[in-house]
Amino acid sequence: MSLESTQGRARRRLDDPAAMRAFAHPVRLELHELLMRMGTMTAAEAAREVGISQALASYHLRQLAKYGFAVQAEARDERERPWKVTETAQDWNGSGTDPEQSAARSLLEQVMAERALSRLIDWQQRRADEPEEWRPAGGIGNAYLYTTPEEFAEISSAIWGLLEPLMARGADPSSRPPGARPVLLTQICVPLRPTESGD
Fold this sequence. Notes:
Distance between the termini: 37 Å
CATH topology: Arc Repressor Mutant, subunit A
CATH superfamily: Winged helix-like DNA-binding domain superfamily/Winged helix DNA-binding domain
Largest sheet: 3 strands, mixed
Organism: Nonomuraea purpurea
Number of strands: 5
Protein name: ArsR/SmtB family transcription factor
Pfam families: HTH_20
CATH architecture: Orthogonal Bundle
Strand content: 5-15%
InterPro entries: ArsR-like_HTH (IPR011991), HTH_ArsR_DNA-bd_dom (IPR001845), WH-like_DNA-bd_sf (IPR036388), WH_DNA-bd_sf (IPR036390)
Order of helices and strands: EEHHHHEEEHH
Domain HTH arsR-type: 18-113
């Protein structure tokens, strides 16, 4: 595990298979996202929001903490301490040479893709009811690129650079301009198989 400090916020590179498998749990991903959106929440508040028992929310929050995705925040009172995320961005771009790490990475990517697809279907069902200025924002775009691995790394770095100031707003609600709302941006990049002609 490594943390890269970016504009006062940390981006975590996941390389521990156990942490990747722990994170690849739908309830934990939902709780983690909820903490990012709300800043801090108690287990009871998170349980109500997600629709699970407080005991189950507490268990999954402790698992997030065990693998470094969440920590307990400063107590609001003497009864229950809230939780907060340790960082708002993760990546797991490893070489994939270790079989256990590769399997954990594939699992996490699959769960993330399924979650993103579910969000897309939900968006399609409610898009017509959204404010007109938001309707073009959601959906899928396709781009076919011819790049070298080095060029693609530069593209990824440039995308992170554009997104980092916007992601930093997750940790600081006061920095969000009027009209800002949370947006899920899922990036799926698939190097395609060469054709028989080599193109």
